[in-house]
Every structure is written in C-alpha cells, then in structure tokens.
Amino acid sequence: MISRFALITLLLATFSHADQDMTAQSTAIQSDPQMLWAEEVLGEKALSWVNTQNKRTLNVLEKEPIYQTLKKEAEALLTSKERIPYGSVRGDFVYNFWQDEKNVRGLWRRTPLSEYHKKNPEWETILDIDQLAKDENKNWVFKGSSIYRPWQSEKQFALLRLSDGGKDAVVVREFDIASRSFVTEGFITPESKQSASWVDQDTLLVATDWGKDTLTDSGYPMIVKRWKRGTPLSEAKETIRGEKSDIGMWPMTIELSDGMKVSGAIQSDTFFTSTFWLFPKDGKAPVKYPLPPKCELTGVYRDWCLVSLQQDWEITAQGKTFKSGDLVAFDMRSFIKNHSLPKVSLVFRPEKTQAVKGVSIAKGAAILAINENVASRLLRLKPASDACDAYIEWTTTEITLPGKGSSYVTSANSRDETVFLGYEDFLTPDSLLTWDRAKNKAIPLKSLPAKFDASGLKVEQHFANSPDGTRIPYFLVCKKDIKLDGSTPTLLYAYGGFQVSLNPSYSSARGKLWLERGGAYVLANIRGGGEYGPEWHQAGLKTKRQTIYNDFIAVAEKLIADKITSPKHLGIMGGSNGGLLMGVMLTQRPDLWNAVVVQVPLLDMLRYHKLLAGASWVDEFGSPDVPEERALLEKISPVHNFHPKEKTYPTPFFVTSTKDDRVHPGHARKMGSLFEQAKLPFYYYENIDGGHSAAANQIERAKRTALEYTYLFKQL
Length: 716
Fold this sequence. Notes:
Low-confidence stretches: 1-31
Helix content: 10-25%
CATH superfamily of the domain at 32-58 and 460-697: Alpha/Beta hydrolase fold, catalytic domain
CATH class of the domain at 32-58 and 460-697: Alpha Beta
Number of helices: 14
Strand content: 25-35%
Oligomer: single chain
Mean pLDDT: 92
Number of strands: 38
C-alpha cells in the first residue's frame, strides 16, 4: 500500500503540468453589464452555458487518476449501512429517514422504542420515496414530517413535505400512518415555500402562497390562515397578515403541561428581529407578546416560557435589566390569561467565553446547550419552585459527556421522557447516547466504527490576532509529526455569518479522502458566527462586514507564518454565506491560496436582494439601496471586484445547483462567466437537482465530494 506522503508527492508531481483545455474558450454569449442572462434559471442561454461548463469540468476532473478512487470511497462512506439511524421519539416509536445505495431517495420508517435499543433493530417502512417518485413520475425529495399528537391515537396522521428536486419550496400532503397511504381528500397544498402547524386533528394553521400579493418581497408567506378539514384551501380563514417588507409570517403551536395547545404566529420582521403573536381562544384579534425584537422563543417547560435574548432588555416596571445572550423565563399561563408581561426571571447568563445554543424540552426536564470556547456543554435546567408568578432562581447541573467536542440533543419532546443525545469530535465518530436522569449522565447506545485512520493525527486549538486585536479561534487537525516547512496541503474552512456556530465534527469523507492522505484541515471560528454569542455575530453585520474577512485572512496568515502550510499548498472552502466568503477571499487576497472551492455562493452583492430569498438577508449584509451600505457592498462584491489585468488569480472551483431556490445559481454563473471572458482557467459544476445542498441524495453528494477533493489534490 502506497504511503500517504508518497501519494501526496505523486499527486503533486502528476498534476504540476498545465491543462490547456481548462482555459475556457469564449462562447457566443454577449452578456449585458449585469449578466442578467445568468439569472434565468432555466433560460436556454443559461442552461447551454451550464451544460458546456459541466461537460468541460467533468471531462478534466473525472479523468484524473485519483477521481474514481475518491468517488468509490465517498459512495461507500455515504451509503454505508454502518451509520447511526438517528430518529425522533414519538410515543412508542422512533421515526427515522434512511438513504443508502439501494434506497437512493430514501425510506421514511419507524421501529418500536424497545426495538431501537437493539444493535440491529427491525424497521417497518412507512413510505418508500423511491417508489413514490416512480409511481407518480415525480422527482420527489423528502423534506420532513410533522406527526399529529396525541401519537397514541388509533388514527395517526402526519404532514409530509415533499420537494421537487430538493428545492426549499415543497408540497404538503397529509399521510395516514396506520394505512400507509395519503389521506383521501386530506390536507394538501400546492408547491410553495410554506409552513403548516397542527391545531387539532381537523384543523391546521397554514402559511403559503395564497395568490397575488400574498408573499413578502423575500418570497415567503405573508398570511397565516386557519384551515378546517373537509373545506377547500381557498376557504381557509385569515388569522393574521404581515407586511410585504417582512421576511415572512409563520404559524406556531405551543403545548402546555396539561396538553393545552396555544396557537400563534411568528412575524419575521427582519432576519434577526421577530414579533410573536398569540391567537386567543375566543377568536379575538391576535395579541402581541411583550418581548424585545431580537429574541427567540426556545420552548415551554412546566409552563415557563423560555426566551433567548439577542439584545439587552430593560423592564422598567419590574426594575429588571437583562443582557444580550441571557436566557430568561416568564409564566406562559399568566400571559395567556392577562395579555401582559408577567414577572421575568433570569435562567442562565453565559460567561464571556460561552454562548447559549438552545434549549430542548422533554417530559419533566429541560436541557440547555451552550458553547464554551467553541466546544459544547449540556446542562440540566431546574427552577427553584413552580411559582411561575414570582422571581425565582434557576439552577444548572452539568450532564457528563464522553469528551469536549460537539454534543447535542438529537430527540426530545414534551410528551416523552426519553432523551437521545449525540456526541462527536474531529477524530471521534458519532455516538448516540441516552440520558440517565438519575445520574445526569450520557449513556452510550449506538456508536460508529472509525471510518478513517486517526491514529497518527492530532487536534489543536489556536488563536490568530485579527487587525483590531481580537483573538480568533481555529482548530487544526493534522499529522502528529507534521513538518513545519510549509509543504502540507491544507484545507481551511469557515462560514462567518447569521450567528451560525461551527463546532468540532466528525466527517468520514474529510477524514478518508483528505486527512488519511496527508492533508491538514483547519476550521476557523471567525466573527459573524455565534460561537461567542450575539456580539460575536453582530461585530460583522452590514458595514462592518470586512471584519469577518479580516479574521479569515488573519487565520490564513498565521498558518503560513507558523509554516503549517504556504500559499502554494493552501486551499479554502465554504458554502452559501461561506461561498461569499470564498468569493471575497478569491478577489481580495488571491495571493494567499492556490485552491478556492466556492459552494452555492452569493457573489453579486449589488443584485443579491433581487434574487430568490435574497431580500431576507439585507439585515445581515446591508442593502444595495442604502448608500452607506452599498458603498461597503461595492468594495466586497466578488463580481464587481474581479480585476484580471491587475491581479493573478488561482484556479477556482464553483459548485452550485439549478434547483437551489434559496441562493440563486446565477451568482456562480456570473463569476464563472467573468473568468471565461478573461480567458482564465476555472472549474464549474452545477448539479441540476439538489437544492441549496447541491445534492439531492447520497450518490450525488458522493460525486460532488469526490470532484471537490480531486480538485484540491490537483491544485495543492
């Protein structure tokens, strides 16, 4: 067997020559200044260009000696039956969605809870998505289910979300679990970006496309209606209406300790501010929750409504001041009765290195998940008393976990005592655990065998200094005996937006395809994310966005200064908002990298707000229609900062999906076209299916992964 170091050397030698056919030939496309042709998702000219680029790229990458090996390994990993069948507990059953090489689109299935604890449980198939797609001649992708409570009733109904090719837009269809069939004349909605919530077995709250002028500027529902069984959707009664400028309006249902259901809606005024509404039982006008705009309702525990704050909150009438990042609680029943703010108690205040991630509610228990220096902790929450109408103290006790990596709740609901937890880190495969309440400890239930050889690897956390002096954490995964001579092929990954935290995670594909072959992996926890709470995120909003890019550059420069790697051997990767990060790095500092994987990206930042869901992100990026914010966008927009006569660019790889109805594929098309017009080499792969993940199933995901790593080996 060839050694990893020898293989890296062989690959670098083999791919050192230039590929003349990768300098894309100019086409007959004469683009206008804004390249609007690229925005026609299914336009003849656009698809012709896409097909040409796909064919050209695949013709090169699929012929590389390593491609077939990587593809075979990726398929084996992603379709392996040696995967944990994570599921949701609903009454006596655990429900799971499963895909493999045989069931490409997947099976929605279940097994009794007692059976699930066995090593190899027996599953009963509820719905075969491959067969359904065949029977209906549709390109169905399963997007989840919502089972009506009580789950123990004789008739069990579920709302299934089915997508055409993986888009965010779905069809909602009612399914009878007992008969394994769709309900005749049951609830069904046309395709739309939508949401539905059970009120009772015969009533739904639905937010969907109701026709002309019922969607927001972001393309999401603006109106929530109440729909009774046996009546046409057109006769559903309006309960609340938002504004065109909102992001969207979404139904919600809250269940109290005695089973009482409380209906309402979430009005997403902007991406980071919301107004919460209560629908009174008497049918009167909706009542506004007396909460600050930047907060999240994280659940109801023993009739305490738990709220995660994203801004400071001063309650003058109560003489209370809470800080951004705090978790607080108030008496839900009191609010329902009086429609005014009850006494608010502090549940948890994170320290400087901590951040609240979320709360999971089980029957008789609440579990708080937090970050601490980017690693995860789980804490059990307990109020000092049941006196919800008073200011009370809350206590936390730590749940014992296998290590300091990523821990999370995989299944918990207020009607069941069973709680499943998950744990993983960069070198430790996923494990499923049960929570022993008496010992407050995680007990192993299922674990994966190692999918790659980690014996010679190490994980370290380091910090880089950004230009403003802020310490930016990053994880380095590499060989224990790494040579500090700048020669190690290194992949640097980050996201940096929307308060999304990136924690240590186990990736079998990354480990097998990259780390085993001598590559190093770096995860940068730059600002814009939520690793250290709301302030970490807000430090990079709108006109402050360059802060995020400075952080990323600082990490890269430290890797080079420490001689972990060098620009010749440094590659970067990111998707969605991380794809924008890649585009900015490609145009701002092309000298720092030799490979740039740009996945489902935003790249035209002067028109992003006009494309698909783009209008919903102006609170993150800023608006091109606001002069001060536009000035910054003009400086960072990759499409508008491409200067081939002034800079030397590495050969990038753009990856997107035609069916992505969240981030428009036109972004990647435009940037690829600029490289083409400049007669510069680039790779481009647009999967026809797949939605925002750029892959609708594991086979497609394996192909995309193999292409990306083939490119990385070729470049680095």
